[in-house]
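The authors assume throughout that readers already know how a fold can be written as discrete tokens. What matters is that the chain and its backbone geometry are given together, residue for residue. A single example would do more here than another paragraph of explanation. For illustration, here is how one protein appears when written out as sequence plus structure tokens.
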Amino acid sequence: MQPLLLLPLFFMVAIVYSMVGFGGGSSYIALLVIFDFPYQIIPPLALICNIIVVTGGSYIFIKAGHFCWRLLLPFIITSIPAAYLAGTVPLDKHIFLLILSLTLLCAGIRMLLTNDTTSVSHKDLDHKKVWAVGLPLGAGIGALSGFVGIGGGIFLSPILHNLNWGKPKQISALASVFILVNSIFGLIGQLQKHSQFEFLQDYFWLPLAVLIGGQIGSQLGANKISPIVIRKLTAVVVLVVALRILVSM
């Protein structure tokens, strides 16, 4: 009965998050916790839904011509090992969540209040500077992703927006592929702990719901919605996540 109750919620989360290149992993986790799902299946189930949404989103954004490997590569080279290592490090939960929520809150407010007038195409960026900044920044984002257990796009996207590194739809494309890569490696880690995934046969409706919702949202984000709306919607999503973390504390 639980998956049926969650169907419309997962569907709507997938639509809203995929419009800005996110997978919705943090919200899936929150919903599964609220509905008292077994703790052991929450991370792998959320990651599977995440991967489904951003796989479709990545394809749609890439097909629409919004993606650039040269801009993403410095971030993922360091984010993957950092995310893996950070997942093994114990950290005081409340201190980390406080820092995380305040960081996202500031980033979201700045994005919401800043007009999209200075963003440039990834083709016009100084790629030497991108590598110089992207390598350490990717490591930091990867570490945050490892601590929290999500794909990391919720961190990468506001940073790129505030740096004006790419147009809004280009940033959504980058965030989508970034989340896909990190989520895949996160799921591999889960497979090491849980060799069997029989639970999916009881909850396959949820991945199906996000598959449909993600396709709808990604199509809207890549082809229909204006860049300014994408930037503002990203800011709202980031702010909602930040406020939800603060409330949960």
